[in-house]
């Protein structure tokens, strides 16, 4: 479609006839993601707040459709990349966020840890070294003051503020650990996301990134499960998949928006969650 045709189409957004508005919006949405830059320029030129609001809604719809498509493709991969999954979640709020930028930031954190890491050290000592870098030198910490903030589920916000919830801190910790060749994985506990160190010789213990990398044992999980008065399940002790981690992040985000009373965003994130295949698929 030519620029003049696009301009004529957008100019109809100030029409008072709802049928015309609906037709125009459908036509614009059918043009897909490539039209977003044009709409953003049209928003800047417009002096009509109603037209601006309609353009904002159109841009959001197009960006959400793009995110949905990306999430479906990510889910279809055999072994989807965790950072990419976290990036997809963050683009819900920050659609211009670049994955390469996140990779560069993670690479810098890995480098800081690599400088002090000792590959031949005992696993406990390796974890303690990583704890000292992440929670000491780099000063990442639990966001206890704003525990339900949506930003806790956005990896870019966590990297910027250096504060997060249990799962976002675990994701960050795990990605750095895996680049250091440490066998560290996520574990889906009820009400708390943790990590496990589990190597080929079945040496296994657990790490609480929300509590500055505290090391604990299977017996501690047994006690935790007993306090909750729920039946123990294998998933409370064993590694979960990257898909499971992203799903849990999405559920946390839904809860965050509900706590804020932003039910429209909560419903949209629920739609994103529904695009992911059930566990085990």
Comma- or semicolon-separated keywords:
2 domains, two-stranded parallel sheet, 281 residues, four-stranded antiparallel beta sheet, single chain, Leucine-rich Repeat Variant, alpha+beta, 6 strands, 12 helices
Description:
- With 281 residues, the chain is α+β, with helices and mostly antiparallel strands.
- It folds into two domains: 74 residues, Leucine-rich Repeat Variant (Alpha Horseshoe), CATH 1.25.10; 193 residues, no CATH class.
- It has twelve helices and six strands.
- The strands form two sheets. The protein has a four-stranded antiparallel β-sheet with strand order 3-4-5-6.
- A hairpin with a 5-residue loop joins β5 and β6.
- α3 runs antiparallel to α4, α6 packs across α9 and α11 runs antiparallel to α12.
- The longest helix has 28 residues.
- The radius of gyration is 22 Å and the shape is elongated.
- The protein starts with a helix and ends in a 7-residue tail after the last helix.
- The mean pLDDT is 93.
